Amino acid sequence: MGALVGLPAPAEARERPQEDRQLIYPGGASYPRVIRLEHSGNANGRVLASVGSVIDGDSVGIILESTDGGDTFQHVGTIADPAGANGRGMCCGSLYELPSPVGDMPAGTLLWATTTGYSVSPADRATTQRLWVSRDLGRTWTFKSDIATSPNQYNAWEPELFVAGDGQLVALYADESDKPDHDQKIVQVRSRDGVNWSQPADTVVNDDFFVRPGMPGVRQLADGTYFLVYEVCNIEGEPLCSIYFRTSQDGWDFGDPNDLGTGVRTGDGKYPRHTPTITVSPNGSILLVSEMLVNADGSHAPGNGRTILVNDRGGAGDWREIPAPVEVPDPNNEGCRNFSPTLLASTDGTSVLQIATDTVDGVCKAFYASGPVT
Fold first, then answer.
1. What pLDDT, in 10s, does the model give residues 127-174?
2. Which residues are CB-contacts of 370 (< 8 A; sequence separation ≥ 6)?
3. Quick count: other Cβ atoms within 10 Å of Cβ 179?
4. Can you tell me which residues the record assigns to a coiled coil (predicted)?
5. What is the Cα gyration radius of the chain?
């Protein structure tokens, strides 16, 4: 893929110096996620974040906590999954707080799902989505179950967790194992106890082998609607990967799996590209961040790596731009720079916390900052 030429950042973005961002963890870090506790009693309001890292050569999940609304973070827990140790590969962790009991897990239980085993040689590979749980606010973690294991040498990625309307725990992930029919698709499974997973089904799929839906993220809107955002790669007329969304009333039925959904667009045709995540503001606005922002013709937009998109109508119509708190100037489909950033709206909806990654002296690092929602 050829490099695209970026344009100067808009004045409102340039006014926020890059030094405003703060390092969230001293070591290497990737794939950040952030939540606010809402079902944990006296701990409600604490902000928890996770990043992937490496300690002594083994891939781990790092859990960080803020008790001051995201101003400062402390390392409080480490998830050392043996399935990701010894170079086997582990990535793409997601962090979730149970809003209601599932099996023997009460509301407030923390869940962390991750992908392991993708670096094993193809002959021995069985990539697995793994579930870990914590009952002490992220300090200690216990392995719970294998959510899904690829039936062949092909990988699967990016597990996303949420509780559906019927109280079952749902996991979505990007699946490459359905070859030769599909290069990648998004699939879903569910569980009544967090141990036994059943009813695998396609969530988003396309008849064109090369079209790749992936990187699912789900949040509930104020009216209870489940809002699913994801990237779709290799669509004709949209180079690389652009961002789409679907909705569900029950958290299981997202409509016809072959419908690619609705594209995210601004009024002047800009669109986000790669690795989308969302947060929902208390006022109902949806805030979306992605690796890149491009113009209608695919060239880098002025706010590429510096922009959050906002929609105030449940995803309908145009999205508007606001400056991102963490600037990663002009990323270009890279493995670290602004890859899968994450957002958390403030409790009053006036600001947003962002965690994003950038390369520093050859090492991928995670930075955080908060900024206003205008």
1. 999 999 999 999 999 999 999 999 999 999 999 999 999 999 999 999
2. 70, 71, 325, 346, 351, 352, 353, 354
3. 12
4. none
5. 19
The predicted pLDDT at position 19 comes to: 61
**pLDDT (mean) for 274-288:** 97
Q: Which residues have CB under 8 Å from 155's CB, separation 6+?
A: 115, 118, 125, 127, 176, 177
Characterize the bridge pairing of strands 90-97 and 110-116. antiparallel
Q: Say if CB 277 and CB 342 are below 8 A apart.
A: yes
What CA–CA distance (Å, rounded) separates 294 from 303? 8
pLDDT for res 18: 56
% of the chain residues with pLDDT over 70: 95
From residue 23, alpha-carbon distances to 18, 277, 343, 367, 368 in Å are 12, 20, 16, 4, 6
Structure tokens at 332: 């270009």
The H-or-E segment that residue 143 falls in is: strand 142-149
Give the torsion sign (CA, 236, 267, 213, 226). Answer: negative
DSSP assignment of 74-142 equals EEEEEE--GGGTTTT-EEEEEEEE-SS-BTTB-TT-EEEEEEE-TTS-GGG---EEEEEEESSTTSS-E
H-type helices in the chain, by residue range? 11-14
